[in-house]
Specification:
This protein has nine helices and five strands; from the N terminus they run βαβαααβαβαααβα. It starts with 6 loop residues before the first strand and ends with a helix. The chain has a five-stranded parallel beta sheet with strand order 2-3-1-4-5, sandwiched between helices. It has helices at 19-30, 37-47, 50-60, 67-83, 97-110, 124-134, 141-155, 157-164, 177-192; strands at 7-12, 33-36, 88-91, 113-121, 168-172.
Length: 193
C-alpha cells in the first residue's frame, strides 16, 4: 500500500459509533498518526500553550470551543505532524460544515489534502443500546439523546458535503469491531492504490 505523505484521513460518526476505536486501530495497522480532537485539546490545555489557555475556559464549562479556536488548535497540531511527513487520521473534527469548509481552505495553504472521510454508520437504536450497555453516568438515555440530536443537526450534514466531493467512504458500524476494521482497511486501501 503506497501512502502519500501529508495525506489526511478523517473519521466521522455519531457518539458510540466506535469511531475513536476504529481510528486508533486503523492508525496502528497502517502506521498513521491518530489525532483525536479531544486529546489535542487536553494536551494543549495541559502544556499551557496560548491556544490551550484560551480553550481551558470552554472545556471547564463543558462547552464546545468556538470554531476559530477549534480550527486553530487542530491545525497547529496538524502542522507539527506535517513537518514529519506523517499521514494522519483525524477523529472528532470537523464537527460542522463551517469547520469543514475552513479546514479545507487552511489545508490547501499548508499543502495538505484530505484523502478520504470514513463515516461509520450506526442506527440510533443501536447507539442507544451501546450507551446503555456501557452504563456510564454520562450515558443516561436523555444525555445520549441530546448528544445524538446535536450530531444529527450539526455534524451529519458533513456526510453529504464529503459525498459530493467524492471523498466519502461509508462503513456499516453495526458489525463486530474486527469486521468494521477490515472493511475500513479494504476501502482505504482501494483509495491509496
Amino acid at each position: 500500500m503506497v501512502v502519500h505523505p501529508h495525506d489526511l484521513y478523517i473519521m466521522v460518526g455519531p457518539p458510540n459509533s466506535g469511531k475513536g476505536t476504529q481510528a486508533h486501530l486503523i492508525a496502528d495497522e497502517l502506521g498513521f498518526v491518530h489525532l483525536s480532537s479531544g486529546k489535542a485539546f487536553r494536551d494543549a490545555v495541559e502544556s499551557g500553550t496560548q491556544l490551550g489557555c484560551m480553550a481551558r475556559s470552554y472545556l471547564e464549562a463543558g462547552e464546545l470551543a468556538p470554531d476559530p479556536l477549534a480550527i486553530d488548535l487542530i491545525l497547529d497540531r496538524l502542522r507539527e505532524l506535517a513537518v514529519g511527513g506523517d499521514t494522519t487520521i483525524l477523529d472528532g473534527f470537523p464537527r460542522s460544515l463551517q469547520q469543514a469548509e475552513e479546514l479545507d481552505r487552511r489545508l490547501v495553504e499548508m499543502g495538505l489534502r484530505i484523502r478520504a472521510v470514513v463515516s461509520i454508520e450506526v442506527s440510533e437504536n443501536e447507539l442507544l443500546r451501546r450507551a446503555a450497555d456501557r452504563g456510564r453516568a454520562d450515558d443516561r438515555p436523555e444525555v445520549v439523546s441530546r448528544r445524538l440530536g446535536v450530531y444529527w443537526d450539526i455534524t451529519s450534514p458533513l456526510i453529504d458535503f464529503y459525498r459530493q466531493r467524492g471523498q466519502l467512504i461509508q462503513i456499516n458500524g453495526e458489525q463486530p469491531v474486527d469486521a468494521v476494521t477490515r472493511d475500513i482497511l479494504a476501502a482505504v486501501g482501494a483509495r491509496i492504490r
